[in-house]
Amino acid sequence: MSPTRERLTPEPPSWLGIPPFPEAVKEALGKAEQRKNLRHATGTIRAKRVARADEVDNWEELRTAAAQIKDRVGRHLDDYLVQAEKAMTDAGVTVHWARDGKEANRIVADIAKAKGVDEVVKIKSMATQEIDLNEALEAEGIAAWETDLAELIVQLGHDLPSHILVPAIHRNRSEVREIFRTEMGTYGTPAPAGVSDNPEELTAAARTHLRDKFLRSKMAVSGGNFIIADTGTLVIVESEGNGRMCLTLPETLVSVVGIEKLLPTIEDLEVFLKLLPRSSTGERMNPYTSFWTGVTPGDGPQDLHVILLDNGRTNVLSDPVGRAALRCIRCSACLNICPVYERVGGHAYGSMYPGPIGAILGPQLRGLEEERDRALPYASTLCGACNDVCPVRIPFTDILVHLRHKVAEYKSSKHPTVEGGIMKGAGWVMSDGKHLASVQVASRAAGKLYRGKWIGPMPVPLAGRWLQARDVEAPPTETFREWWKKNREGGQK
């Protein structure tokens, strides 16, 4: 059982406490050590990814196949979900449906209480971060221990993850040593007194710290990289083996999985197991790839639960342009190539999904009511590098432009602006030739009024600072229609 203390687990800061991206980047750009760490880490991963992708002769065909498979899942998601539920239920899994994070958290907490446990071990999971599961369990008196090494660093450091694949990418090994030295003993087995910043020593300290938690925990929580619809098989890929420990030792396993993570058949998985490791860690295959199909007596957890999480995904699916974001397999290749992410890090995005994928997925999952979400589609140079590396061909730049348009529409609907009024008027003018002709009469009159002169800067309320440094030529004294009539229809040829 977990030791008694004021807080069961280290308390992280809140995403809600981070200002919108345009403000957050000012502080992020001042962190020279963080920029150095990010530049080194992302550069290393990029180089490995290029080398591994170049080994595959049909790399581009695999990307196309992956995109088509995910799109097919989206088109028939209702059918695949029903099929997957039946297959999992037939295999002995209890399937739950969660409309949002609050409902999913309640289900996990209720299962833990029913089992009489006050702590769980966790496999790294973006879905559980998305719904703030750790904080919800803490409020119910249940400790949630992260077992992924990078997630452990973040948790013990009272920090927030800054990368999808490498949550502690913003930390160097000296910082990790200090976190282990000062925090490990508060929440379990302490680090050795003389631990150095040598990676092998730090890893050994983490292994010792986690071993007790693995051996005593009766319940584990995971996400899921994929669910095979026709067999009900869950798939998790990982690099350290901590996931394998969580999938074999505890008596109860609860998996929180987004409804978009389905694949039709096991044959479809082959495509993704070639793309995912090469795109994420620059490896030919994942060190640990775990499959489990229901309950097997005497082998692994005997009480399996799967929570199928919506939490805004059906809203994303309803957008013909934005729905391509649901192809994402959380490889983080878009983060590693992004020049913006490399300079500001993940925290500036104010979301567990940083980088290009965060800029297009977060605002769609949560909506545009908050300023932080309205700012994210602008957190990009639109250079298109993310389009080129994405293993499932997500058209990031198209979606970013689409979301910028939606943000502009949202702002105009809430607070009408002069610019919006001008654009609405221009739309009326250009919608009909008669409208244009009537406006041209006014333009001609203005041209005669300012004949031979220049119009200086426009009044600030009308044009703002743009025209304060620019001159605009006077309107013409003759419209194009008049010129055409005189020179082409009956006048000079």
From TrEMBL:
<dbReference type="InterPro" id="IPR037171">
    <property type="entry name" value="NagB/RpiA_transferase-like"/>
</dbReference>
<dbReference type="Pfam" id="PF13183">
    <property type="entry name" value="Fer4_8"/>
</dbReference>
<feature type="domain" description="LUD">
    <location>
        <begin position="83"/>
        <end position="309"/>
    </location>
</feature>
<feature type="domain" description="Lactate utilization protein B C-terminal">
    <location>
        <begin position="404"/>
        <end position="487"/>
    </location>
</feature>
<feature type="domain" description="4Fe-4S ferredoxin-type">
    <location>
        <begin position="325"/>
        <end position="394"/>
    </location>
</feature>
<dbReference type="InterPro" id="IPR017900">
    <property type="entry name" value="4Fe4S_Fe_S_CS"/>
</dbReference>
<dbReference type="InterPro" id="IPR004452">
    <property type="entry name" value="LutB/LldF"/>
</dbReference>
<dbReference type="Pfam" id="PF11870">
    <property type="entry name" value="LutB_C"/>
</dbReference>
<dbReference type="InterPro" id="IPR024569">
    <property type="entry name" value="LutB_C"/>
</dbReference>
<keyword id="KW-0249">Electron transport</keyword>
<protein>
    <submittedName>
        <fullName>(4Fe-4S)-binding protein</fullName>
    </submittedName>
</protein>
<keyword id="KW-0677">Repeat</keyword>
<dbReference type="InterPro" id="IPR017896">
    <property type="entry name" value="4Fe4S_Fe-S-bd"/>
</dbReference>
<dbReference type="GO" id="GO:0006089">
    <property type="term" value="P:lactate metabolic process"/>
</dbReference>
<dbReference type="GO" id="GO:0046872">
    <property type="term" value="F:metal ion binding"/>
</dbReference>
<keyword id="KW-0411">Iron-sulfur</keyword>
<dbReference type="InterPro" id="IPR024185">
    <property type="entry name" value="FTHF_cligase-like_sf"/>
</dbReference>
<keyword id="KW-0813">Transport</keyword>
<dbReference type="GO" id="GO:0051539">
    <property type="term" value="F:4 iron, 4 sulfur cluster binding"/>
</dbReference>
<dbReference type="InterPro" id="IPR009051">
    <property type="entry name" value="Helical_ferredxn"/>
</dbReference>
<keyword id="KW-0408">Iron</keyword>
<keyword id="KW-0004">4Fe-4S</keyword>
<dbReference type="InterPro" id="IPR003741">
    <property type="entry name" value="LUD_dom"/>
</dbReference>
<dbReference type="Pfam" id="PF02589">
    <property type="entry name" value="LUD_dom"/>
</dbReference>
<keyword id="KW-0479">Metal-binding</keyword>
